[in-house]
């Protein structure tokens, strides 16, 4: 019987990693990749395949199943989810009949509260923690564009069976996905959150890309203030992060494509719904809970929610 893996959310993250999985296991007798999509995305992928455009090559893969019909999707052994954070509850509602008590769920979201929110929906299931570092985006429905060579996936759990974690790691490795099964996954996820939250907040507030922020002393100072504030929140929560986490995060940003920006900034420019609640407001709310001052986050939140 095949191990069935659902990919929910075929955007920059889910589309890219889901595409690699679909390509690797297209002819597999042991593993089936199910791409969960609807509307124009479903139509395009069913007709033209899922296209991944990288710096030096293009890949087109035709997944064995692209559907949003729970009857067609059937029961899933693993569910990798990478929708926008504001879609978590809605997207899972349509899949509840595909999730059994044995379905292991791996969230790959920008925020840090996804695991808790999904666990509330499915208290009997094992919900992992995970995060990715990648610069990728939807160029058009069914077409994912990846910029730069950086693509790392981290996941882990304190209560999942080791055999299941190792099986998932093997599935990723066999699909040539650079993945890391880590013990201190909460700290790893927060390190990513510090990076993406400050970047999303700064780019959206300043309406500038990475290079424009780093090369302007005043704008860079705002970004560093955000890093210091969110690091203070993480410390108040008792997370054991590196002492030089702020410097490490700045180096990560300096190594990123300078003409790139955050997905939240792109959504803001396009007039779409944004993840400001998960990426900016969450920090302000947690700061208030632990008595940490976050004036820069507060200033940015007020502007982004006002506009």
TrEMBL record:
<feature type="domain" description="Ketopantoate reductase C-terminal">
    <location>
        <begin position="184"/>
        <end position="304"/>
    </location>
</feature>
<dbReference type="Pfam" id="PF08546">
    <property type="entry name" value="ApbA_C"/>
</dbReference>
<keyword id="KW-0566">Pantothenate biosynthesis</keyword>
<protein>
    <recommendedName>
        <fullName>2-dehydropantoate 2-reductase</fullName>
        <ecNumber>1.1.1.169</ecNumber>
    </recommendedName>
</protein>
<dbReference type="InterPro" id="IPR036291">
    <property type="entry name" value="NAD(P)-bd_dom_sf"/>
</dbReference>
<comment type="function">
    <text>Catalyzes the NADPH-dependent reduction of ketopantoate into pantoic acid.</text>
</comment>
<dbReference type="InterPro" id="IPR051402">
    <property type="entry name" value="KPR-Related"/>
</dbReference>
<dbReference type="Pfam" id="PF02558">
    <property type="entry name" value="ApbA"/>
</dbReference>
<dbReference type="InterPro" id="IPR003710">
    <property type="entry name" value="ApbA"/>
</dbReference>
<dbReference type="InterPro" id="IPR013328">
    <property type="entry name" value="6PGD_dom2"/>
</dbReference>
<dbReference type="InterPro" id="IPR008927">
    <property type="entry name" value="6-PGluconate_DH-like_C_sf"/>
</dbReference>
<dbReference type="InterPro" id="IPR013332">
    <property type="entry name" value="KPR_N"/>
</dbReference>
<keyword id="KW-0560">Oxidoreductase</keyword>
<comment type="pathway">
    <text>Cofactor biosynthesis; (R)-pantothenate biosynthesis; (R)-pantoate from 3-methyl-2-oxobutanoate: step 2/2.</text>
</comment>
<dbReference type="GO" id="GO:0008677">
    <property type="term" value="F:2-dehydropantoate 2-reductase activity"/>
</dbReference>
<comment type="similarity">
    <text>Belongs to the ketopantoate reductase family.</text>
</comment>
<keyword id="KW-0521">NADP</keyword>
<feature type="domain" description="Ketopantoate reductase N-terminal">
    <location>
        <begin position="5"/>
        <end position="157"/>
    </location>
</feature>
<dbReference type="InterPro" id="IPR013752">
    <property type="entry name" value="KPA_reductase"/>
</dbReference>
